[in-house]
Amino acid sequence: MTRTLTASKLAPSKLMLAAAIGALLAVSACKGPQTAPDGSAGASDAAVDASAIVKQRKANFKDIGKSNKVAKAALESTPPDFATASAAAASIKDDAGKILGLFPEGTGPDAAPKTEALPAVWQKPGEFKAAADKLASAADELKTAADAKDLVATTKAMGDIGGACKGCHEQFRKKDK
Ligand code: HEC
Prior knowledge:
Cyt_c_prime_subgr; 65% helix; signal; Cyt_c/b562; single chain; 177 residues
């Protein structure tokens, strides 16, 4: 980062300049979420952003997990609640469409220690996208089956959704500790 400046790296004659730049950086950093104590705005901003994005994507997966449970319970109730399952499927489809955008470059384990995402996400973007697409199409399948009130087809779709979660986690998420 070219914006990163520390006084210790500069000759004493440049300290005044450094102080001025530091003040400027501090002012501009005020617009951002946070700044590091030494005023090195560049790297710390990136770190803050990465962990914020990790929080967002975890929330998105939690939401996906919730909808999956809602759909399962709705289909297991007597009589099956197809309308609720259909709505849950639509929500999963919606959230599945957000997955890729929540994994920008620079939000891997190097930048965000709290992520459970493996470097493979960024090393094999095509396969990661395919895994996200698989979830989206399984959610579509569930919605179609639920709208048709076809219990056999919803059961198959739920299996496909579960397979999509598992398939992606095996390749792209850290194993449970
Ligand atoms: C395209 C890949 C992919 C698919 C599909 C996928 N996941 Fe994940 N999931 C991940 C990754 C990667 C993480 C780790 C995210 C992180 O820690 O930054 C994760 C994390 C999670 C978490 C933990 C969230 C947290 O709070 O830490 C849950 C719960 C979860 N997934 C549930 C599901 C369920 C349920 C499905 C299927 C309905 C699913 N996921 C489908 C890749 C995927």
